[in-house]
Amino acid sequence: MSDSPARTPTQSAIWAAALRLFSENGYAATSVRDIGAAAGVDPSLVIRHFGSKEALFLATMQLDLSANPLTSTPLETLGATFIDSVLTTDEHVRGVFLALLRASGSDGISSQLREAHEQSFVAPLRDRMTGPDADLRARLAAALVGGLLYALWVAGDEALLATDHDEVVRRYGELLQSLITP
Amino acid sequence: MSDSPARTPTQSAIWAAALRLFSENGYAATSVRDIGAAAGVDPSLVIRHFGSKEALFLATMQLDLSANPLTSTPLETLGATFIDSVLTTDEHVRGVFLALLRASGSDGISSQLREAHEQSFVAPLRDRMTGPDADLRARLAAALVGGLLYALWVAGDEALLATDHDEVVRRYGELLQSLITP
DNA sequence: GTCTATAATTGGATAGAC
DNA sequence: GTCTATCCAATTATAGAC
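Structure tokens for the assembled complex are given below, as produced in the milestone run.
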């Protein structure tokens, strides 16, 4: 998640309000008026500074988990570590992920989600892998990781949400590990 | 996917038009006017017969894959068979799944997606499993299956889409199998 | 840079004649 | 059951004064 490229206080306020409202309520349920009100700013300034609602959405909803300490963890425990890291991400990342997912009907937003998936899931996994089919294994591994977020956050599997954290890390991490070091 | 409970030809036409437009363009991008026009019917009848736009959406977007022949396949090859079955589902199921997913910000739609996940993924897998932790393994397996659909359809992993079908079935099915018969 | 006012469109839903 | 006409609310985006 990149920081606000705050030029003026007004732009910074709009940026912060949009980040919060979009991640809490999603794209459709957040109006330009709402953002202006939350920022204590006239709604017209929202468009004036960021061009359009979708442009502001794309500017704020940037999912970047590549700052993970995954590059320094031993390869043999990377599976469990990675699962643990995605399960302990703050509430904020969850909101951005869901907002992107649910607004992915639009072309621009869809491609941003694609990039986020590639940079946050596929790339960090593939970077640690070796072998001729490393790319394929990394993509299946990314699907596996994304599937956990889907089950917990989108499908809302409450039984899985209530399951002991370490148990999920152990079992699901083992599956991920078998793709990393087959 | 349940059939149209067609009473009158008008209701049937509305039902068919809504099913097509919602699954092609999603909830937000489909207006009641669009549905009426596609059905060759006055837009007001859409509301009159189905109560509201969301009620019509919930009535038509019913994902039901429980009719799979998975109950008859041998347990040892269930993993690959299940992965193969979700990869070969018709375009129609994909549209309904994505429409539900992207509209899952609403409470009613979210719970319908939860039910679909439970009945189409969790239940058929758990029904074939044994052991004290069968429920947890089934939920992790459902996450794994959903993750593949997420990667292909939501994140749009083109490299994975271009990968040989049998190769994905073999590798990813093997992971699923290790949850079914550990 | 900021605000007032409003354009221009679109949406869901309703009333009442036929 | 169906259609005409419309209400009412909400949206994004813009024009122009200050």
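Chain A touches chain B through 44 residues (CB under 8 Å). The longest helix of chain A spans residues 107-127. Further analysis is deferred to the final report.
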